[in-house]
Amino acid sequence: MLGDIEENRVFRSKKELMTCLSIMSMRKKFQYKVFKSNTSFIVVRCVHPSCSWRVRANKLIESEYWMVTKHVDKHTCPTDFKTTRRRQATSWVVGECIKRRFINPGRVFRPRDVMDDMKQRYGVELSYSVAWRGRECAYENLRLGTPEQSYNLLPGYLHMLMQTNPGSVVNLEVTDGNKFQYLFIAFAASIQGFSYCRPVISIDATHLKGKYRGVLFTAVCHDANQQIFPLAIGVGDSENDAAWTWFLKRVKDVFGENPALVIVSDRHRSIRSAVEEAFPRAFHGICIYHLLNNLKTKFKSKNKELEQHYIAAAKAYNLQEFHVLFYTLCSAVPGAKEYLESVGLDRWTRSHAPCRRYNIMTTNISESFNAVLVKVRELPITAFVNEVRLLCQRWFQQRRTKANGCSSRMSTDVENKLEERRDRAQTMDVICADQYTFDVVDGDRNYCVDMALWTCTCRKFQLDQLPCDHVLAVVRKTQYDPYDLCSLYYTREFWCETYRGVIQPIPHISSWVVPPPISTFQLNPPDVRTVAGRRRKRRLPSMGEERTTPKCSRCKGKGHNRATCQNPIALRQSEPGPSLLSPIAGASSATELGHQTYPSPSMPPPVAAATAPPDVGHQTDPSPTMPSPIAAATAGPHFGQTLADS
User: Fold this and answer.
1) pLDDT by residue (tens digit) across 188-240?
2) Helices (H), 34-193
3) How many CA atoms lie within 13 A of 415 on its CB side?
4) What is the pTM of this model?
5) First and final CA of the chain: distance in angstroms?
C-alpha cells in the first residue's frame, strides 16, 4: 500500500506518484484529471469544476525523485457526483493493485477474479478487457518484463548466475542476427552432488508454453533418499537430433562418462541417436512405461493381464522368473515376442541389463520434475530460468536440513525399506553350509546366499546393492552388520555430501553489475510461426496413454477434484426416524429457508406429534430433559442432521 498523498512526501519516480494518486482516488471514491504536466512539475485537480481538491508535485533537481509541494485535501463537489466507475482504474493501475496476488507462477487469477477483487477492495467496476490487461501488467512484474525484454535480459542474468554461483556451467548458443537457439545450465551444487548419486541419469523433454514456445530438456537422477536430484536443464527450438545431441554433449562435458553410467529415456528416435553419439560407452535403457504404451497401441490391447505380465517381466531380477512371465505374456498376445525382442531385451528388462539400473526402470523422476514446472513453463525465458533456480535452491536447502538431521547410518527411505525386509525375514529358515554360504528357505522356495561374493540367487542383492530379505535372514543368524552390506550410495554420509553445495540467490536487477560486452549484447527471440487461436496448454497424450478423468471426492462429480470443487452440497437427512426440520404431520403450511423446510410458527402441530420421541443424533430413547419437537423445530437447527464434508 502506497498510502495517501501528503505535502513534502517524496516519491522515487513520477510513475510511483501517479500510482499513489490513482489508488487513493479509487479508495476515497473520487476522480481527478491532470491539469498541467511536464518533465519538472505536475498539477492534478478533481474532475468536478467547482471542487477545490488539488495536488502539485515537483521533480527534485538532479534526481528522479518527485516531492508533493501542495495538497488541498478537501472536496467541495456534490456527494452524488461519485460513481462506481473510475477513470483512474486503468490497466497499469489495476496491475499495480493486484500484483501482490501473484506470489508464484502457479497462482490462478482469472480476469473475472480481478473484477471481483477490485470491486470488493475499492468499489470499482471494471470491464473484462481492462481486467485482462491489468492482469497482464501484473504478470510483467513477475515475468521480468515482456517476452522480448526477457530474451534481452537473459545474458546479464546468466552472468550474474555465474558470479553468485562459481563453478556453474552455462552455455548460450545464438544464430545469425543474435537470435536465441540453445541454452544449457548446470549449477555448481548439482555438479558436486552427482558424485554421490547412483550413476543412472533420466532424461526427458517437454514443451514450453510461452509466446516463443521451445522445448525444455532435463537430466535428473536419484539421491540416497530416493528423491529427485536435478542435474541440468536445457532449452532448444524443438525435440530433434541436433538439439538432443547438443544438450547431451553438454551433459557429458560437465558430468563425464564411465562404463557404469546408464541413461534412461523414452524411445524417441532423436534421443537414441544422440545418446549413441554423446555417450558411446554408456548403456541406454528404455522407460518400461513408454514401451508398454507402444505395446498396447501396436496390438490394440487393453488387457489388464498384458500390463501385469509385462511389468512383472520387466522388473524381474533373475532369468528364470523372467522367462516364465515372458512366456505367459507372449502366449496371451501373439506377436509380442518378436516386437519386444526387436527392441532389445537388455534395454527394457532388469534381468538382461548389462549394467545396474537399481530401481530406476522408468522416467518417472523426469516426468515428475516436468510436472513441478508445469506453470513455470508459461513464463518468458529469464523468468523461467529464475523460477527453476529458486526451485532447486529451495530443494537443496530443505533436503540438506533433512539429511543433516538424520540420525541413522542409512537415509530415511532406505532405513524404512530395510525395516520392512527385516520383518519378512523373521519367518525364513537359515541353513548354514559353511562360513560364507547359506541356504535360506522362504516358504516353498529356497535361495542360496554367498556372503563372500555378496550374492543371492534372487539377484536383488547384486542389482540393487542393498540386502534382500534372504540376506537379512542370514544376518539375523550371524554376526554380519547389515549396514556394511549396503552400497555407499544409500548412506547418510553420501546423502549429506549430495546437498553440501549451496545454490546462492541472485540480487535484484537494479543491483546487477554486468560488464559492457555482455550488457550491450542484444539477444533477440527465435523465429516462430504464430498459429491462430488460443495456445494449447494441455499436452497431447502419448501413444497408448489413457487420459483419466478426475472424480471429486466431495460432490462425486467428474472433471475436477476436491480442491477446485465449487458445487453446493445438500444436507443429508438422518436415518432412522423423521427429521425435526421436515414438515410435521398435520401441518398445512411451511416456511422455506435455504434448502430446509421449517414448520410455520402459525400452524401448531398435533399433540400426537408433540409426544413422539425426537431424532437427536439417531437416539430413539426418549429423555425427560429433551425439548419437545415443537420447541426444537422453532428454536434452532436439527441435531440429528449433519452437513456433508466440504
Assistant:
1) 999 999 999 999 999 999 999 888 889 999 999 999 999 999 999 999 999 99
2) 91-98, 111-122, 128-142, 147-164, 188-193
3) 11
4) 0.74
5) 34
